Fold diguanylate cyclase.
Amino acid sequence: MSPIFFILITLLLTSIVWSVIFLMAWYTLGKKLYALFWASAFMCSACQWGTILLQPYFESDVTYWMLAVSFSMASVLLGTWGHCIRTRCPINMNYLLAFAVITFAAVYYFKAVNVHVGLNMSLYIYYDIILLFINAIIILKHKPKSLPAEIGAAVTYTVCGLCLFIAATIALMQGAQVNQAYLDLYILINFITVPTAHVGMAVFIIFIMASDLAQEMQKLAMTDVLTQCVNRRGFYEIGQQKLETQLSCEQHVSLIYWDIDSFKNINDEYGHAGGDEVLIQATKRVRACLNKDDIFARIGGEEFVILIARDSELKAKQFADTLRTTLASKPIEYKQQCIDVTASFGVISIKCATTQIDKAIDLADKALYIAKHEGKNKVAYAVPLN
Ligand SMILES: Nc1nc2c(ncn2[C@@H]2O[C@H](COP(=O)(O)OP(=O)(O)OP(=O)(O)O)[C@@H](O)[C@H]2O)c(=O)[nH]1
């Protein structure tokens, strides 16, 4: 029996296994739609290898070829669709579908109407190659800093695309009729690279899903459930890093420590649920005033810190007063009742990138203590940390 038969059997079985794995990943890892697309992509791949294995049983060579071609194109298209969904890439899938239909029609034309072996063997592979390159770009471009799994997947897609490009070009070089020498070379390159690329792509996609999950978990571990702010642990982890980057970008950095005034009284008057609602609404109001890069953390019951960077020292200093007036501007509604809320603020300017964030928090906390002692609903400034 030809070794190609065994390679095809291996490809068929591994495609089925990958499809089942992606189906299970869809079920267990939060029913992400893109996992379903990848499961279908590998199922189409299995159908493609199955069709090739069953070639001797087809009465019409055109039917056999067009079926194998459609499974190959569907597999790459569904895989790409999955990546587009995961990365929220704005590519209009209708264009890729239309491109697939045109390629399919062209392959049919050169297979059944005006026979040209080189073209009917290579055109659909060129379609697959273009999609593989698109995949690599989508995966790398959607975030400023790609995950190692994404880099690995993009490299695998690119290498696979390049190998297929060589194989397709050799197939095309046959011209209108079969050329045995080119055909043998095509088969050699194809069957050396396809199994490795196949396994490589599947493993990297699984690795991407695991990395996404790890990132989600890490985000959850650093998020306060009630207010959706960063929690104490998260602030210590990202605050220091942020401080260094912002100061190196010549930004003016301030740390604001604030605390809702007489929160115990709010709890006593409106109950714990009322207190929780105040925390939620107050943080929403504050968040609406922040820039995208500011870090907003809840580090205690009704105590928060914000690390901001502004292009002038005055803006960075005055920002706490904007927050104070915003919070006090109107009462918070809770069960048809109005709760007046104010907060006190301690602010410290940080000028040196090596400043330890916990030292800055300590000094801002001392300033907050002064604001409380001066009658609450106030902003107090600590001596800047040089
Ligand atoms: N509703 C609610 N209350 C909380 C939460 N965490 C802490 N608290 C309450 O917040 C209150 C904080 O009270 P204090 O530390 O005395 O502070 P305060 O009443 O705001 O007084 P000042 O800070 O001096 O203005 C306590 O009664 C805590 O039980 C929470 O997640 N939800």
Q: What stands out?
A: The pocket of guanosine-5'-triphosphate is lined by residues 226, 259-264, 267, 272, 275-276, 279, 301-302, 372 (CB under 6 Å). The chain has two domains: 3-218, 232-381. The mean pLDDT is 93. DSSP finds eleven helices and eight strands in the chain.
